[in-house]
Amino acid sequence: NATKDCYGLFPKRMLYEAFATLMQACNVDEIYAVSENNHVYRQLRYLFQKKKTFVASYSEFWESLNGVKKGALYHLPSQVMRKAPESIPSKKRAEYRKRYHILDTIIQEVNSLSR
C-alpha cells in the first residue's frame, strides 16, 4: 500500500533519497553499500542458519540507483538522477510529478533538520 500511496515510488527509494540528502548535508562525498553476495549472512558462520531465510536483493536496488559495482561493494550516487520530463510517457507525467513532489518535500525536510 505504501508504494501505491506514493504514486509508485518504492519506500526504500524514499529512504535512500533522504539518506543521500543527509550525507550531502554532512559533507560525505562517497557512499558505498554491500551487495547481497557479501552480506554478513552469507559468511561462513551464518551459512547454515540463514541460508533459507535471506531473500534481499540489494544489487538490483543499487543498480536501479545507478550504483556502480566496485569489487565487493557498490559505489552509490550522492544524488539520485531523475528522468527528464520529455522521456516520460505523457500518460505517466502527472504520476511522476507527484512522486518528485514527495521526494522534494523529503529533501527539504532533511535539509531543514540538518542546518
From TrEMBL:
One Pfam assignment: DUF535
Domain of life: Bacteria
Stretches of the chain forming a coiled coil according to its record: none
GO BP: any one term: DNA damage response
Residues making up the signal peptide according to the UniProt record: none
InterPro entries, per database record: DUF535
Record-given protein name: VirK family antimicrobial peptide resistance protein
